[in-house]
Amino acid sequence: MLxxxxxxxxxxxxxxxxxxxxxxxxxxxxxxxxEYGYGWHLKNINGIPTREHGGSIFGFKSMGVxxxxxxxxxxxxxxxxxxxxxxxxxxxxxxxxxxxx
Length: 101
What we know:
There is one protein chain. By secondary structure, this protein is an alpha+beta fold. Helices cover 30% and strands 34% of the residues. It contains three helices and six strands. The protein has a four-stranded antiparallel beta sheet, with helices on one face. A hairpin with a 2-residue loop joins strand 4 and strand 5. It starts with a helix and ends with a helix. The mean pLDDT is 94.
């Protein structure tokens, strides 16, 4: 997963134009801005932009939060579809940010 993040950062997987599309919030036809690019949720932790993506399949869940401005990448995996790692991953990312400030 770290290799995946590195190739995204270095535009080896997507070129700069495609990366910009993937990591840009868009407006719906009604003018409402959504926190979603082309495949990533574009949110923030205490005003600092994040790129987030999770997934699941039978018996497995994952969550990743990348903070591009600080180059922090937090991943969580669960082999039980009864527990999502989302909250723990976001909490760890927030703690990492606090420790840097």
